[in-house]
Design brief:
The chain is of the alpha+beta class. The protein has four helices and nine strands; from the N terminus they run E-E-H-E-E-E-E-H-E-E-E-H-H. A hairpin with a 6-residue loop joins strand 7 and strand 8. The longest helix has 13 residues. The chain is globular and about 40 Å long. The model has no long low-confidence stretch (mean pLDDT 92).
Length: 171
């Protein structure tokens, strides 16, 4: 369970998803350590992909496009255990997209080798057309793109978004 205002501890892992330790966001990012994340991609009935424009206030990749929702897997506040990927996916969807989580399908895990944010992300997909009620602290807006439209914004995609979309054969 996530508690508002409590410092989140990220789950640091190796390339094979073996737990190493918990560290704060700043420690993970400053040290460039791989940590667990989740990435959710919503695709509507017309096969368009929902992408969010990250808030201009985000520390990493402000004003860039990323997948529909994404975020970190954290240490549970009430135990010494980390959240499951599924728990993190549900929490991040609600936090960023602002609506109850639709049925998510786990697809695979992927290593994201971005030097400024190395992660091991669990990729989920869902068929969903909205509505979206983006959290302005996290997301400027959410917009659907065709595969061709994604090609046109490639330079505006976060490293995570590029790899996740490639793993899903969407770009």
């Amino acid at each position: 369970m996530r508690i508002e205002g409590q410092q989140e501890l990220f789950v640091v892992v190796d390339d094979h998803d073996n737990f190493i330790k918990y560290l704060s966001e700043d420690e993970c990012h400053v040290q460039g350590l791989r940590h667990r994340t989740v990435s959710m991609v919503a695709i509507n009935e017309e096969s368009e992909i929902a992408m969010q424009l990250r808030s201009p206030d985000k520390k990493l990749f402000p004003n860039m496009y990323t997948v529909t929702a994404s975020g970190h897997v954290i240490k549970k506040s009430e135990s010494d255990e980390p959240e499951t990927y599924d728990e993190a996916a549900e929490a991040e969807w609600i936090e960023e997209v602002g609506v109850p989580t639709p049925s998510l399908t786990f697809v695979k895990k992927a290593v994201i080798p971005a030097p400024e944010h190395p992660t091991l992300t669990a990729i989920y997909t869902t068929t969903y057309s909205g509505p979206f009620k983006p959290n302005p602290a996290e997301v400027a807006y959410i917009k659907f793109f065709t595969k061709q439209g994604l090609q046109e914004i490639m330079s505006q995609l976060t490293p995570n978004a590029r790899i996740v979309l490639q793993e899903l054969n969407l770009i």
